[in-house]
Structure formats: structure tokens, C-alpha cells
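Milestone M4 deliverable, item 7.
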Amino acid sequence: MHRPAPSRRGFLLATAGAGAALGLAAGPATAGARPRPRPFGRYGSPAARHTPRTLYVDPHGRGDFTSVQAAVTAAAGSGWTLVLAPGTYRETVLVDADRTGATWIGASQDPRDVVIVHDNAAGTPKPDGSGTYGTSGSATTTVRADGFTARWITFANDWLRADHPGVTGTQAVALKAMGDRTAFHHCRFLGHQDTLYADTRDLGLFARQYYAHCYVEGDVDFVFGRATAVYEQCHFRTLTRTDLAGAPYGFVFAPSTAGANPRGYLVTRGRVSSEAPDGHYKLARPWVPSSDTTARPMLTVRETHLGAGIDAVAPYATMRDAHPWQEQRFREYRNTGPGAAITVPENRPRLTRAEAASHTREAYLGDWRPYARR
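Output delivered:
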């Protein structure tokens, strides 16, 4: 079913399909509309602090801080918990590598209520005149630390191409995650190009990341990077585009897995839907960056519903002629839906049952078990 694109300034709080993806009630969120009497829910308050290393953030002034970055700056060292009250936090946030073991919690347990958003793009000029931000610099939230966990939070970048027709660097990252043992549960990632950057701090670090019951939307390469990342029961939604006359509108995944890394992206038990016309999106294309021409991008999509928005005849594309997608590590296993129809077998590389046994969350994440019930 095709729907007209919602207002892109309103998409933060009423994203098409987000409520269904997360099992939430339908209807727009009320983030920031009015203060709640108990902004931190069951997670305590500055007057009844759960632990000495718990900080409370509330844009209405009822916490320890009114901005997320201020709380991060104060939380030096390891093992801090930030509880975020409902609200829209318009800012950029950086979690340095030495702030390990941090946990962020959206207090209402509804990710539509807690939104961290900004609007830088790769081509946005820096205020000091030193150039533009570049892709990494455009990120609303950057997490460099190991052991980071977030629950029930929306990470967004609402930079719009239509507002900046002269800007050519249109990458606009909502979140860049770079640490090992990084987990996101019931979170949303909203943007257009390069929404979710699942990456590592350096080429030799095979950082493991886990995304469970999350929602991601965008158009061009909107899940990309070189991390070892598992996306379990996540919903990926492709957006319509009014600036293009025909297909393809974009690509869901663009992994850049290091050649020495035996594990790239694993998508399992998820779904891909679209507000664009049928067949207007590719499932993936490989990103072999100039900084690592030995990369061998790896993506496995298994037991996932691929909607009609995915081009079933040719679901993969090549980003650069020197690195055709056929030479990369792209595989599928037991996917369903019209976008998974096998019409040209050579265009749908598939795992055997024996091979699929090594493409599981356990195999990808090893001794780290963020999916274990607590």
C-alpha cells in the first residue's frame, strides 16, 4: 500500500509504520507537549536516585540536566546510567571511548516519547569556517565507547534535501555506533541517507553490535558500516522520493566489512516495508571505501519478510565497478514476501541449510549475550 510522504519535519513523532513495528499504540507521540508529573517513571528521580551512578535528564528542568550531552560530560568513567524523560532533545551528542559501560533509558518505555535529533549533513558548513562536517561529523549521536546500551529512544537526523538544494553532501547520520558490545533495544533511527552508521573505531577492531526490535527508516544506504552487527526482529522502512523520476530510489544496506572479519551484518526475523512504489529499492550494495580497498562487505538476510518495495529481479547493485556485488559476501536464507521472490536465481545468492547454521546471533556475537532475558 502506498501512502503520501508525511511532513518530514513531523516524521520524528509520527513515523509511518513505527508504532506497528514496535508493538505500540497507533497515533503521534506527545514528546515535549506537556510535562508529566512523574517524568522518570519507575526509574527514580534526583530525590530518589536508584544508584549513585544514575543521572536524570529532563528538558523541563526536573532532572540533574536539561541536555543529554551535559549529562554525558558529567558521567566521567564507566558504568553510568542516564534516564531520559519524555521530550525532544535538539542537540548533538558524543560519548567518548573512555565512558564505557553506559546505559541510556527512555523513561516512558515508548521510543516515540524521547527523541534526540539534530540537522547536520555531510555538506553542512561548520560554524568556524573550517570546512564541512563530512559523513561522520554529521551524526546527531556518536557512540565511541564499548559496552553501551540504549532502550526506548529515538535517534534522528531531520536534515532535508529539499531545504538545501545546493548541498551535494546529503549524507545525514542519526547515529554512529563504533564500540564493541553495543546494544539497542526498542529504539528508532530516523533519517534519509546514511541513517544508521554501524561501524568500528578502527579497521582492526571487529566491534560487535546488537539491535533488537528496532525501527530504521531512510533511502540511500541507510544502514551501513563495517561493524559485526545483528539486527533481530527489526523493521526497515524505505521512504518515497520526490526528487527522482524513477527507480532505484536507494538501498537499504551498504556494509563495508573488513576483509579479515568473518562476520558482517546479520538480519534475522525482521521485515522490510516501503512507502515508495513497488520495486523501487535495492536490498543492498557493497561499500568498499577508499580507506580500505581490501574490504569484503558481508550481509546475510534470513527468515525476513521483504515487501514489494524491494526489486526482486535484481535486489543487489554495485557501488563501484571495481568491486561488483557478486564478489562480496551477500547471502539470503528462507526469506518471504514479494521482494524475496526468486525470479533470476543468479541474482539471489542463498545459503544452504548447513551454511545457515553458522549465521546466527550466537555465532556472530560469541561470548557476548545481549539477547539473554534478564
